[in-house]
Amino acid sequence: MTFGPAERLGRSTTDFVLGLGKITLFSGQLLKAAFRRPFRFRRLMDELYNIGVLSLAIVIVSGVAVGMVLGLQGYNTLVRFGAEESLGAVVGLSLIRELGPVLTALLVTGRAGSAIAAELGSMVVTEQLDGLRMLSVDPLDFIVGPKALAMVIAMPLLAALFTVLGLMGGYLVGVLFLGVDPGSYLSALEASIDFRSDVVGSLIKGFVFGLLVAVISTYRGYTADPHSAGVSAATTSTVVIASVTTLIFDYLITALWGV
Amino acid sequence: MILGGSGSGKSTLLRMIGCLAKPDSGDIWIDGETELTCMPESQARRYRRNIGMMFQDGALLDSMSVYENTALPLREHTESKEDEIRKKVEQVFESVGLHEVNHLLPGELSGGMLKRAALARALIMEPAILVCDEPFSGLDPRTVRLVEALLMEVNHRLGITMLITSHEIPSTFRMASNIVLLMEGKALCGTPRELLASDDDRIRSFFADSVPESAFA
Amino acid sequence: MTESPTRDALVGLFVLAGFLAIAYLSVSLGGANYRGEGGLEVIATFDEVGGLKPRAQVVVGGVKVGQVDSVELDEDLRARVSLDLDPSLNLPSDTSASILTQGILGDQYIALEPGAEEIPLSPGDEIQFTQGALILERLIGKLVQNIGVE
User: Do C26 and C45 lie in a common domain?
Assistant: First the structure.
């Protein structure tokens, strides 16, 4: 059977709405599972290790590198106007408002979100989740919940680390390599950052992105088709959907919060 | 025992008995009083305590050791202390013939060991019914005989009802007291003797390859 | 998963480092733009504020002592700027305020010049002597005009 473009459009629209409904219901179940007793501290620690600690390396390296590039580019632009003292403000504002949370979300999606989807997907394939159900253990409770919660906790922390390391990278290039005055770098930085609109906005972004990646990756893994193509489809679509959603929500939060 | 070619719906039937899947139509009754198809998840969770399921590929959690996998239901559903759990797990390991595997991960076990570990986890909560999905799949003929003997021994010692799917016709005839044959969307039931005595051509042709002609009455 | 003290310690370190980063961002950077609680609120009215914006610095002798709270028009259509200052300064009541620019194209800020009065500024007071922002284009325009006249 072949479909014309109109039918395909209709199909993908209904699929989209259907998927949105399903993922919302799933989030509801997940939320319920997260508050169900007993609280699984042990499982949470394991997942914090997998998601948080194991993402540290990529976040540290990328954070410093992005900060250094910002320092270099910012300097080259500012020096034309004799305003290189404002380098701290340029690096700081772009990192705190946008690059820190957004790039961290994209990196963590690639590193940990895909891993969550792949692991859950392969647990579906090998009947591990059904196995748990037959032991009267709810997999949402035991496996999925701790993963999602760890993601929500780890994302703002990683985003903050990324931002601070980026500031250090900018300082390194600006002050040590290009000779900007350290005092004016720091004072421009401090003067330009506002607690409410910049720092809180940045933390809100980290938290929201964490929620998004957590829900999308666990949903796609949990509902993966039970064969290996299903697992790879779940992994790929987790990265694609989570990245796009992160960028869309970034715009929305920026517009609403005024960051 | 439930026999049938691949794709005939053996595993799906077991999944429905475990309340993991719902039938497209019809009801499932347990003991003539419990109805499975419209059971809410919370009730299903209580019901599944009575069923031990041994999955085809073990379905043990990869990230936990065999010991932790087996101890999991005890930790989840009982107030047992650590030494009680240890004693119980070791007892079950002993009864299925598993030795010195406590700290191995499921991925590090051989096929036969994995089946034993899956059986151990299915038995740990002392279920009323033991459901085994393809306990002989992926094993060499010698190990098939070992697992077969193990299941028979468990059956005699614990006296629990067992529901086994298989496509291994010889071992089915050695073990089964009742056979359900799934083919072409129909289920045919009977004792092994009855099935062999049947003059239905479909049954005869199904068994023809693996049961010697002389076995037919 | 089996328990592992090293893993737990790493998780602990990770969480700690994350919170330190958040604390640094909030306190050292976010908090640094002067939020003296119960700060000294004074008013200054200017003819011209140029590009002065809320959160711009207020300095005395180049040292930051507060920030601009709001910039709005008053009844006489002059720019009314409210300043949030450090109350411990005891600035004299005849302090003057002028709007200056950091560098040629930099941010605008307010510089206060302390006077000689004994009485200090109190909350709600208005700074009497003010000097508005210099607009580069106007200066050049005037210059061109003057040259033309001569």
Answer: no
Give chain C's mean pLDDT.
Answer: 82
CA distance B173 to B140: 18
CB B122 within 8 A of CB B73: no
**pLDDT, tens digit, 9 for 90 and up, residues A56-82:** 999 999 999 999 999 999 999 988 887
C149 inside domain: no
Per the structure, the complete domain to which residue C50 belongs is given by 40-136
User: Same domain, yes or no, for C21 and C48?
Assistant: no
Interface list for C 7-36 with A (CB within 8 A): 7-8, 10-11, 14-15, 17-19, 21-22, 24-26, 28-33, 35
Q: Min CA distance, A124 vs chain B (Å)?
A: 9
Q: What CATH number is associated with residue B190?
A: 3.40.50.300
Number of domains chain C is built from = 2
As a whole number of angstroms, the distance between CA B156 and CA A256 comes to 69
Reduce the DSSP state of residue B15 to 3 states and report it. Answer: helix
Which residues make Cβ contacts (< 8 Å) with residue A227, sequence separation at least 6? A125
Are B14 and B131 contacting, i.e. CB atoms less than 8 angstroms apart? yes
**Mutate which of A134, A143, A228, A231 to test chain B, going by most B C-beta atoms within 10 A?**
A134
CB A206 within 8 A of CB A160: yes
Q: Which domain holds residue B57?
A: 2-210
Domain contains B216: no
Interface ipTM: 0.82
Identify whether residues C88 and C112 lie together within a single domain.
Answer: yes
Count of B-C CB contacts under 8 Å = 7
Mean pLDDT of A31-45: 82
C59 and C28, same structural domain? no
B115 close to B58: Cβ distance less than 8 angstroms: yes
- CB-based contact, B64 to chain A, within 8 Å: no
Do C9 and C50 fall into the same domain?
no
Asked if residues A234 and A121 have their Cβ atoms less than 8 Å apart, the reply is yes
* pLDDT, mean over chain A: 89
Burial of B30 (0-12, 13-18, 19+ CB in 10 A): middle
CB contact under 8 A, A85 and C105: no
- Amino acid letter at A252? L
In a domain, C98, yes or no: yes
| pLDDT tens per residue across span A89-120 | 889 999 999 999 999 999 999 999 999 999 99
Please state the rounded mean pLDDT for residues B125-132. Answer: 84
pLDDT higher than threshold 80 for residue B146: yes
Same domain, C28 and C89: no
Phi-psi region of B102 (alpha: psi -120 to 50; beta: other; left: phi over 0): alpha
In a domain, C109, yes or no: yes
Tell me what pLDDT residue A31 has. Answer: 86
CA–CA distance, B98 with B120 (Å, rounded to integer):
9
Rounded to an integer, what distance in angstroms lies between the CA atom of residue C77 and that of residue B104? 81
What's the Cα-to-Cα distance from A140 to each of A27, A32, A144, A171, A223, rounded to whole Å?
11, 9, 5, 45, 12
- φ/ψ region of A140 (left if φ > 0, alpha if ψ in -120 to 50, else beta) reads alpha
Residue A101's identity, in one-letter code, is P
- The Cα–Cα gap between C55 and C58 comes to 9
Q: Which residue has better confidence, B94 or B200?
A: B94
Q: Is C67 within a domain?
A: yes
